[in-house]
Amino acid sequence: MKTHNFSAGPCILPQEVFKKSSEAILDFENSLSLIEISHRSKAFENVMNKSISLVKELLNLPTGYSVLFLQGGASLQFLMVPYNLMKLNGSAAYLNTGTWSKKAINEAKLFGNTIIVGDSSDKNFNYIPKNYTVPENIDYFHCTSNNTIFGTQIKNFPNISSPMVCDMSSDIFSRKININNFDIIYAGAQKNMGPAGATMVIIKNDILNKTNRDIPTMLNYQTHINKESMFNTPPVFSIYVSMLTLQWLKDKGGIDYIEKINNEKANLLYQEIDRNSLFKGIANLADRSNMNVTFSMLDQEKEKIFEDECSKTKISGIKGHRSVGGYRASIYNAMPIDSIKVLIDVMQKVEKL
Ligand SMILES: *Cc1c(COP(=O)(O)O)cnc(C)c1O
Description:
Blueprint lengths: L3 E2 L9 H12 L15 H17 L6 E6 L2 H13 L5 E6 L2 H10 L4 E7 L20 E5 L1 E2 L4 E2 L10 E4 L16 E5 L10 E6 L16 H6 L9 H17 L1 H22 L3 E3 L10 E6 L5 H10 L2 E2 L10 E4 L6 H16 L1
Parallel strand pairs: 1-13, 3-4, 3-5, 5-8, 8-9
Antiparallel strand pairs: 2-10, 6-7, 9-10, 11-12, 12-14
Helix pairs in contact: 1-6, 2-6, 3-4, 6-7, 7-9, 8-9
The structure holds pyridoxal-5'-phosphate (PLP).
């Protein structure tokens, strides 16, 4: 029986991507493995170039932006962003929408004045703050587009004059965005793009080199732009699998196509949560994420029955994060609608018991 992987990350990827990447481990070029060839070889150079051009194509990237594949996860970006953008005695504005935002804020505080312009911690981050003001004359504004743990998603980004930086780890390539509004976008690969190990960073080139800071070589975006993500050995396997996933997405019809499907998938599940007398959604209606659907059971005595039915049908990874409780169904790009229907069937079955 097939396992339905609703895990928040590392997460489901297309089956054909798993198949192709396992083949490449055994035989990539002339019977060498993908993970034993030189990253300076022509074969891997092609992989890197293809990955970058797929990112550019899928996101419709304007000129003047660089695409990097770095290591250290999204978590390293929490400090690379202020290191590269916050001037000495400068300031940055942050929107605090959950665990990952808070971690980014904690790093920024090491570099300068960090202003929290909106904060939803009063309701355990079940909503996205609105009508906040981003002060002028800051070095940048930082937000998290999708709050993986709490199941909220920014639907409207603010219109600001300062550079905008966004952690898009858990909804990159899931919906259309206007890249022109952003100056840095970063995303750990393991949510919607590939296996852990690579972090994609998109940078508007002209926002760099304005801080008068001495930045260590490896933490300086300019190093990686100059060396085209090859300053040191890149995470070859993670980049290759990301390339396959992006190619899969392109073949399906790109972001326009996947956004439509993602809306359908999320609507189907939220409709059932709202209809079913046993369940309720956790996130504020207007801010519900299309990637991570958080919900709980009204009658805690039924939780065991629901969980048993889930394991019987091989539904995996839907336990909510410990800071929220309840359940979380992560329905990233590669999650087939049929798996969501299996979950809905279980919810309906338990309601009738
Ligand atoms: C998972 C996640 C992170 C952390 O990513 P790492 O690559 O593990 O450092 C950061 N931000 C968001 C929104 C995430 O979902």
